[in-house]
DNA sequence: CCTCGAATGTAGGCGTCGCCAACAATGATG
DNA sequence: CATCATTGTTGGCGACGCCTACATTCGAGG
């Protein structure tokens, strides 16, 4: 009699990803279990297996979605009309904001578990993400506002700095407030370095 | 007849830590299991519990040892007689070298699992580690070779950059060779920034 | 409209894990 | 030498990821 729920969920895959992201945000990576997700969504413990061949596949899907969200966030934060320094500051703010309220997800995105297959889709997403920064730097370089050199290399160090700060935030060595407040100073450092002029 | 091994191991705690570090290096964090460690060392599956209250306690001990090793490595790499730039380069090289052949361990060291207790010992070890960099920067600052500003803040951004590069290495976006080769350029960037002079 | 195969969900089981409690051997302290 | 804390063993609990066999539903071709 209890017509309960239909035998088929409708969009279990999406529901699992949504639940996973919520769990990730609220309880952290360690609390992510396929069985628990199945329970939350109301299906049997083996149902997730129909949509993700194993746990890593789900993590990959989460990471992929994360990259897309981050790339979009960076793209909307980028205002090509701005001068270099404020333009970079906006990007840095957007990245740090993402890192702050997606700490566990970001960690997942950076986990090097997907080297073997590489999954092209993932690579493309990463490219899109770092592309935001690279574009800005390359343009500035053409205008002579940034030193010469392989753009990829420049992009690497700036990206590393950002990534490092994000890591410090999730390690708890830097409060989110301090990080966001320091964004301007951070960009200034990126541009001018440690040496006095 | 088989007088096998004595009932008591002698120094089980150290043996476990050693085995754990080996496993960490060879198979990665995911392959670390208390039961497996016990098997490797030749004790029963519950024996580790006598020395580490839970798995996290073992991980903390590993991280602590890692910090001590890293701090020592940085200290021996620091030559106060050198001018600023080569001196920093040596430190960067030492840090990257550690990151390269202790990737999984470094990840553990940066995991923010030990905020609650803080374990003072850990905090002291961290302080010792970052202290190497901070000292160099503070001295250079006094000599006027580095811009003014809160030394802790300067230290933060340089540390973040280093940490970020290390992250890129373990993410596989940067080969160890490329990272070490780029150390000099990295330091130059830290000192001079992206803007042309 | 019906059938039949593919897609999706369920039930149960296997081996492993971390942790716990009860018990056994050892070694240090009086 | 007796006693007791330390250290190791055995066995068990619940949870996990993954697998296989089975059930239900959906959709495409007759």
Automatic annotation (TrEMBL), chains A, B:
Residues 33-52 bind DNA. Keywords: DNA-binding, Transcription, Transcription regulation. It comes from the Bacteria. One of its GO terms (molecular function) is transcription cis-regulatory region binding. Residues 10-70 form the HTH tetR-type domain. Signal peptide: none annotated. It holds the Pfam family TetR_N. InterPro entries: Homeodomain-like_sf (IPR009057), HTH-type_TetR-like_transc_reg (IPR050109), HTH_TetR (IPR001647), MT1864/Rv1816-like_C (IPR025996), Tet_transcr_reg_TetR-rel_C_sf (IPR036271). This is TetR family transcriptional regulator.
